[in-house]
Amino acid sequence: MVHGRVSRLSVHDVRFPTSLGGHGSDAMHTDPDYSAAYVVLETDAEDGLKGYGITFTLGRGTEVVVCAVNALAPHVLNKDLGDIVGDFRGFYRQLTSDGQLRWIGAEKGVVHLAAAAVLSAAWAPWAKQEGKPLWKLLVDMDPQTLVSCIDFRYITDVLTEEEACEILRQSQVGKKERVEEQMLAHGYPAYTMSCAWLGHPDATLKQLCSEALKDSWTRFKVKVGANLQDDIRRCQLIKNMIGPEKTLMMDANQRWDVPEAVEWVTKLAEFKPLWTEEPTSPDDILGHAAVSKALAPLGIGVAIGEQCHNRVIFKQLLEAKALKFLQIDSCRLGSVNENLSVLLMAKKFEIRVPWGFPVCPHLGGVGLCELVQHLIMFDFISVSASQDRMCEYVDHLHEHFKHPVLIREASYMPPKDAGYSTEMKEDSVKRHRYPDGEVWKKLLTAQGN
Amino acid sequence: MVHGRVSRLSVHDVRFPTSLGGHGSDAMHTDPDYSAAYVVLETDAEDGLKGYGITFTLGRGTEVVVCAVNALAPHVLNKDLGDIVGDFRGFYRQLTSDGQLRWIGAEKGVVHLAAAAVLSAAWAPWAKQEGKPLWKLLVDMDPQTLVSCIDFRYITDVLTEEEACEILRQSQVGKKERVEEQMLAHGYPAYTMSCAWLGHPDATLKQLCSEALKDSWTRFKVKVGANLQDDIRRCQLIKNMIGPEKTLMMDANQRWDVPEAVEWVTKLAEFKPLWTEEPTSPDDILGHAAVSKALAPLGIGVAIGEQCHNRVIFKQLLEAKALKFLQIDSCRLGSVNENLSVLLMAKKFEIRVPWGFPVCPHLGGVGLCELVQHLIMFDFISVSASQDRMCEYVDHLHEHFKHPVLIREASYMPPKDAGYSTEMKEDSVKRHRYPDGEVWKKLLTAQGN
To answer: Of B409, B436, B423, whose CA–CA distance to B41 is shortest?
Structure first.
């Protein structure tokens, strides 16, 4: 087990000026600067062990998350990492249910993003000291220990601790083959979101799409929702390039109201998208259920999750059959702990629908690909054992990570380095610190700020 | 119409050490220090007009909300208040949908609490310059102008702008009488939450209950959920004092899971509570629907809302008949603008159930009573016209406000001062600023910090 007393918590406001190139732009987030609140836990362990945690943000507001991380610091400082992970459920509860802080959450928005970063900063050194990548740590863990990391508060009406253990036990069959013959040999299938950001002009879209085809990509997602005529033109353009055999998905990023979503997507149905993502507010469970029902006859599923703020929302989306594809996010939810509960609920509910609620996570941003790959590999090996799933991929900002993702033939290859792939390069952090890093100093000077 | 360019925004971290006396304590918030992020907008108007806004917090974390208010400042600074309230829907949308900031919300948690404070700081001077208390400003406003303050995004599937106007037009009948013969003469009925905080020992509870009876209170709420035997003893004690004719309500502050809520409340059913409040997670619409269904045969309703984070959640609670009593909160929701939408949705849905979804707001904290009284009076006069409603009352911290609430015979009397009752006394703010105000300096020194 990991050990080392946390002697210091520092948190950095790291921003990348992605808005300059239109990368990451969609119908609701028109000028994101992909950013992160980056947490470093220092310990007094003899090996100099550190814990790195991260939460993804879009630029402005990163300083608010940084402030929330500092508010959580007293729950971490001077604790031994062994005690933290030894009672991970208790630690999760402590972070997310602080009697004063929970008023400004609870388990949602800023404080939950901050908690996710802190929790990840505890998972990472555990895997590191065990000498395993996180996915392997989880895969090798006995079911009882694994579920002891989960806070079942508010979900026992659909999943108890005992049921969670039973799911994990039943999934032992074929585990070794799934690791060796599938993950290590072929990796985890991915789709690309790099070609069709809303801010990309048609020429860029064409060029990126053509390059992606050369790189063996077979599944493509396009941002929609701002202007119907533009959507039709862009979808036609991509569909012409990828042909009828390859897969297209659409992402509206919450742009529509419920009736509008149905109407708009119906007009794009000719492009046969596999799913329409975030058609409306991520808080609207019943709204998504209505959209799902209306689009089912067209063969279009609803995908949602990147802004669903906790396990209680996912519980209801599953109960109401409001989605077809479930998209977890490693930082929006409370790190590994809460994601585990969602993966297990999805498994529990899979028999209720013919489509089995495939988990197809949200990735991209800063570090999301690095983190979520661990969770989805664990899901395939130890929970779902299902091959109908795929992971998002976005091809930027990986160079700032010490152990960036490895993509081969449009698949994520299992990380081999011990840890949770959360560590950023020191120089990257230093240069992109907002507002005093070199990159921002230059930009802000140029803007006359 | 109001005018004055916003020349400065300042925001204060104001905290009251209420945890020292166990005031405000419940099953989930055991040691709250009632606090506020207090916003002051200065303008260049000739009359020196200022805008005061407030959002309620529980101590730690107030600094995070302060940070979020500062992040919103660029949307307010150098704007004319006339332009802001002249396109209030647009301003609401701008504050809540900033393309970078919305990632850490959106419309929930820290950023939404911050937006509420800023929005209130724009409503207050509008009412002030019109020379009216806010409730009167709203009551006198023509329906078209009033609905132009509401962002209907994500709720058009249940309430359109036209329907909202129609509701307001239909409620014109009898308005004058409701103002003069009811509100001005008798005020708005209230219930007290001051007697039975969880941290109060039985002797305190008895004494406060006895005083409240003398002060004409007829409706009492008790905190429950931490320990069943304690709950039974305390409920018995209060019931014995108030007798069978007066009303008892229970508040669990989200302590239970769904099955536990049903089981626990069933064991308290002998005390015949009118409602059980926040039985489980405020995010759990379907869970509350299940609890509502299970408790209906016992004659116990579910009340919820103080931590429901936006209109989309209320829309679904109404759709799913998940509540009987709807509890708006003036700061959790996006100020007057978003509260209007919830009041109108409740009206729209009232015909769907025999009990008509009475709105019984959450008050207490710092300033909630001062603010919400305006909304509920508007609701009675211009929307619901219903007399089956009541407002919470908590009897502390009013002395820090320039225009504190006036309670007469257990009723809120309509405020007469122009504005939104949001202004705090300068000296109170100064003394309670955290951590450098005199009160905190002394306390922190005594604690050795």
So the answer is: B423
CB contact under 8 A, A110 and B112: no
User: For residue B62, what are its two tokens?
Assistant: 């107030």
Could you tell me how far CA A271 lies from the centroid of its own chain? 27
Query: To the nearest whole angstrom, how far is the Cα of B167 from the nearest Cα of chain A?
Result: 21
Which DSSP string do the residues of A267-285 spell out, in sequence order? HTGGG--SEEE--S-TT-H
- Alpha-carbon distance of A54 to A63, in angstroms, equals 13
Distance CA B368, CA A216 (A): 58
The span from the CA of B95 to the CA of B89, in Å, is 10
Which residue from B314, B270, B306 is spatially nearest to B392, judged by alpha carbons?
A: B306
Domain holding A184, by residue range, is 169-427
Residues of B in contact with A309 (CB under 8 A): 108, 283
Summarised one tens digit per residue, pLDDT across range B3-18 is 999 999 999 999 999 9
Q: Which CATH number does the domain housing residue A301 bear?
A: 3.20.20.120
Q: What is the DSSP code string of B171-203?
A: TTTTHHHIIIIIIHHH-EEEEEEEEE-TTS-HH
Q: Is residue A34 part of a domain?
A: no
Give me the number of domains chain A comprises. 1
8 Å CB contact between A300 and A275: yes
Residue B432 included in any domain: no
Contact B117, B53 (CB under 8 A): yes
Contact call for A99 and B31, based on CB within 8 A? yes
Contact criterion met (CB < 8 Å) for B281 and A312: yes
pLDDT 10s digits, B109-141: 999 999 999 999 999 999 999 999 999 999 999
- Domain assignment of residue A262, yes or no: yes
Dihedral sign, Cα of residue A261, residue A262, residue A268, residue A273: positive
Look at residue A420 and tell me if it is in a domain: yes
